[in-house]
């Protein structure tokens, strides 16, 4: 989306800031998914899944020797899924709590594919319902003008009229105060005006304070949404800095017992609950796979020549889709015996671009 140069916007308003931060509560589900972007579905609480430690290893970048203590795939039950956001960076992540459940896997194998298909259909239905409830939302990649200390934030008219309360266009300078909550429940106040030649929607007072507090730069994206409850919310998707973000939130990265694969190995051995911290924007491949999808991979394997479609995120935090052809596969780790975690080699086709990439994000089951 092309930004409008706001460096000449009048700077007659005093900069504002956030109101007092409320006690930490539950992250808004709609806003969390909006900030997460084009990611695969998270496992549902109570569902049967298969945990693949090799994929987890690639995600956290731990030493390969840690995988040896964990089976190549572990049948689990999802105990809980807790959605959170990093207080320092606003990066969204999920804490998925799992417990080993081999008996459930055996029961499902005895009952056959009917129950597996049922569960799969249920997850697809949940995703469809979530799309049907999609709130009024827009997402814009910030330009240099949007992050200038002398400017403001230019909002496309259609987006402003869809997300924001209506302005009285009969006034000479239509304006209003907007109050929007971020992922942490902090309220941000902005002055929303409609002015200029040609006239355009702008956020002025309070905008620079938000940009400075969140340390936003050109290329980052800001999104606003108005949910079913009528509350206006806003979030961010960081672009270039994303490559420098740890896949494990800093709060938990300080405690090796919470993020270590060795800790997972101990929990698997005694069948106790273990926790996986998952940043959907940094994880290229699913390593917690629904049980039905894992079992279906045996009867419907990926093969050379098969076409695929996938979603991915550009460096500017925008969503793109691509198609391609599978050209081969290889072991992710030759030392792992019996592992179903494979790496697909594909020929990816993007607009006006053809390239060969090593891409396990297409799918990890073959």
TrEMBL record:
Q: Name one GO cellular component term.
A: nucleus
Q: Where in the cell is it found?
A: Nucleus
Q: Where is this region: Disordered?
A: 1-24, 105-125, 319-338
Q: Does the keyword DNA repair apply?
A: no
Tell me the GO BP annotations in alphabetical order: auxin-activated signaling pathway; regulation of DNA-templated transcription
List the PROSITE patterns hit by this protein, alphabetically.
B3 (PS50863)
Under the heading Gene3D superfamilies, the entry gives:
2.30.30.1040, DNA-binding pseudobarrel domain
Q: What is its main location?
A: nucleus
> Which UniProt keywords are present, listed alphabetically?
Auxin signaling pathway, DNA-binding, Nucleus, Transcription, Transcription regulation
SMART domains per the record?
B3 (SM01019)
User: What one GO molecular function would you report for this record?
Assistant: DNA binding
According to the UniProt entry, which residue ranges have a biased composition of type Acidic residues?
114-125
Does Cytoplasm count among this protein's keywords?
no
All copies of domain TF-B3, residue ranges: 138-240
This molecule's function is given as: Auxin response factors (ARFs) are transcriptional factors that bind specifically to the DNA sequence 5'-TGTCTC-3' found in the auxin-responsive promoter elements (AuxREs).
The family note in this entry says: Belongs to the ARF family.
Q: How does it assemble?
A: Homodimers and heterodimers.
Record-given protein name: Auxin response factor
**Source taxonomy lineage?**
Eukaryota, Viridiplantae, Streptophyta, Embryophyta, Tracheophyta
């Amino acid at each position: 989306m092309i930004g409008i140069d706001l460096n000449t916007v009048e700077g007659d308003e005093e900069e504002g800031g956030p109101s007092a931060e409320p006690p930490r509560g539950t992250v808004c589900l709609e806003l969390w998914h909006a900030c997460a972007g084009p990611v695969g579905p998270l496992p549902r609480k109570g569902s049967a899944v298969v945990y693949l430690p090799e994929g987890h290893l690639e995600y956290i970048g731990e030493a390969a020797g840690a995988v040896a203590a964990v089976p190549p795939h572990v049948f689990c039950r999802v105990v809980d899924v807790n959605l959170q956001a990093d207080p320092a960076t606003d990066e969204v992540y999920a804490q998925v709590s799992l417990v080993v459940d081999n008996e459930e896997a055996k029961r499902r194998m005895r009952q056959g594919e009917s129950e597996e298909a049922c569960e799969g259909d249920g997850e697809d239905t949940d995703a469809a319902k979530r799309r049907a409830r999609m709130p009024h939302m827009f997402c814009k990649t910030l330009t240099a003008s949007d992050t200038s200390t002398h400017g403001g934030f230019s909002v496309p008219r259609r987006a402003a009229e869809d997300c924001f309360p209506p302005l009285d266009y009969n006034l000479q300078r239509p304006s209003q105060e907007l109050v929007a909550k971020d992922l942490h429940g902090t309220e941000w106040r902005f002055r929303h005006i409609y002015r200029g030649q040609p006239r355009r929607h702008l956020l002025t007072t309070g905008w620079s304070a938000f940009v400075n507090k969140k340390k936003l730069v050109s290329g980052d994206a800001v999104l606003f949404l108005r949910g079913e409850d009528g509350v206006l919310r806003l979030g961010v998707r960081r672009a270039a800095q994303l490559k420098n973000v740890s896949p494990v939130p800093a709060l938990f990265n300080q405690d090796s017992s919470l993020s270590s694969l060795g800790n997972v190995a101990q929990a698997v051995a005694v069948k106790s609950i273990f926790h996986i911290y998952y940043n959907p924007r940094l994880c290229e491949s699913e390593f917690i796979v629904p049980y039905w999808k894992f079992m279906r991979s045996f009867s419907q394997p990926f093969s050379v020549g098969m076409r695929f479609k996938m979603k991915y995120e550009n460096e500017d935090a925008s969503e793109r889709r691509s198609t391609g052809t599978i050209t081969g596969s290889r072991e992710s780790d030759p030392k792992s015996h019996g592992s179903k975690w494979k790496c697909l080699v594909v020929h990816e086709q993007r607009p006006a671009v053809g390239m060969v990439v090593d891409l396990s994000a297409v799918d990890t089951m073959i």
